[in-house]
Amino acid sequence: MTVLVQGRTVLVAGLGISGAAAARVLLGRGAQVLLTDASERPVVAELAAAGATWLGRIDSVPEGTALVVTSPGWRPDAPLLEDAARRGVEVIGEPELAWRLRAVDAAGNAAPWLAVTGTNGKTTTVTMLEAILLAAGRRAVAAGNVGRPLVEVVTSLEDDGTPAYDAVAVELSSFQLHWSSSIAPAAAAVLNVADDHTDWHGSFAAYRDAKAKILQHAPVAVADAGNPVAAALVAPHPRPVTVTLGEPAAGQLGVRAGALVDRAFSADPAGEVLLERGRLQVPGPHNTVNALAAAALARAVGIPGEAVGRGLAGFRGGAHRNVRVATVGGVDYVDDSKATNPHAAGASLAAYPRVVWIAGGLLKGADVDPLVAAVASRLAGVVLLGRDRGVLAASLARHAPTVPVVTVESGDDDGMDGTGVTGEATMAHVVAAAAELARPGDTVLLAPAAASMDVFRDYAHRGRAFADAVAALR
Question: Alpha-carbon distance 149 to 19, whole Å?
């Protein structure tokens, strides 16, 4: 596949993890690699030493450029990308480049991709899928929007020159899918679609349509039957498969008498039991849906039901995704800092009967009223932080007026404001306030429904600060 890039001039726009990986692989394939970004990152020196050319920040495509590989963080209206469109220069993302450069075995076959997108649950589902594939004896890895860059994974070779992996569990964001055109996974899932990232895509319809691109070349299309938008996207597909928390119909995976059951790929019309639901180590209905979706993708490529069950039973979940960090004074403290939008927070809150909710941050224009109205009956108290805490406070006043609400002033600008207030100090006040509101049997849940970058570096920084503050309580 080297002929695709050898000798061609390729501009890599954005030198984060995926951009740097793309540049390395392109250099190794004999491309003339140009580099641009908003500022010169440390990796530029390494890439320049390997033969790439650093151009600094540019707004137009250099003459002779055959291809632009863009970072998922670059919006379509970036001047450089708009200039490429005017000139007719193809723009792709790192996943599309990876698809085109996949290593093949002696028979000419590349490792199949099992691809997942959705507003929420992508990483959990992809890592569940990885666990299933490994349990089945596949040389598998989770990659893409999680873990290692795809272009690095799919070009990795064993010492004998064969591909390092024979299956890839692929997480794809809407940003990555926007710049993809030919990716053809062996099976693909759109878990759910809710209001998010409209600032990048320009509209909800454009965001939804970007998600749908994962299905266009996939022979099997999976979705949560409980999410109307995702279910509508797979409905016209030649092989739609939906998952449900109820009794599965033919063509579905669902829950029967407390067990996960496959009626889409099983030879038995009544279905095949994959796993007792109680053996899942991650709580909440949303994680049952994630498990069913991962199972559907695995079953689509012939993974036995027994391996699906073993893989799911051994799955422990990822950091900052509905993880109980401690129990103090009879109160559970749960870190779901990855719940960065209202849809994710709603799924997390549904897992617990009585909650002291820690919320707030950057809402990015999302409407929180439906979330607050839906969870009001579960709330024992709320502690708010972050730039958009006032929006949440107003919604709570409308829909949960009897619930105690504490607002904590917080630092800004990557964890510290001009007064020296750090994210850690803010979270210590937040957790102390939540502990005052909680009673034995309650759950203090960090599920912010908002992005973190107003007070913290990222959601992981926010989650670590929460865990540290809880540890200090003891």
Answer: 9
* Owning domain of residue 391: 323-473
Number of folded domains that form the chain: 3
| Rounded Cα gap, residues 103 and 165, in angstroms | 10
What residue has token string 């049997």?
A: 441
Same domain for 126 and 206, yes or no, is yes
Instruction: Please tell me the predicted confidence (pLDDT) of residue 421.
Output: 64
**What is the rounded CA–CA span in Å between residue 189 and residue 289?**
12
Tell me if residue 214 falls in helix, strand or coil: helix
The dihedrals phi and psi of 438, each to the nearest 5 degrees, come to -80, 150
Q: In residues, how long is the chain?
A: 474
Distance, in Å, from the CA atom of 429 to the CA atom of 389, rounded to the nearest integer, reads 15
Q: Which of 253, 285, 313 is where one domain is finished?
A: 313
Residue 413 belongs to a domain: yes
pLDDT tens, residue by residue, 268-298 = 999 999 999 999 988 889 999 999 999 999 9
169 and 116 Cβ atoms separated by less than 8 Å: yes
Q: For residue 270, how many C-alpha atoms fall within 13 Å in the half-sphere facing its CB?
A: 2
50-101: per-residue pLDDT in tens? 999 999 999 999 999 999 999 988 999 999 999 999 999 999 999 999 999 9
Do 405 and 452 share a structural domain?
Answer: yes
Phi, then psi, of 47 in degrees rounded to 5: -70, -40
Q: Can you read off the two tokens belonging to residue 212? A: 């749908």
The CA-atom distances, in angstroms, between 324 and each of 170, 357, 444, 454, 465 are 27, 14, 10, 25, 14
Looking from the CA of 127 toward its CB, the CA atoms found within 13 Å total 17
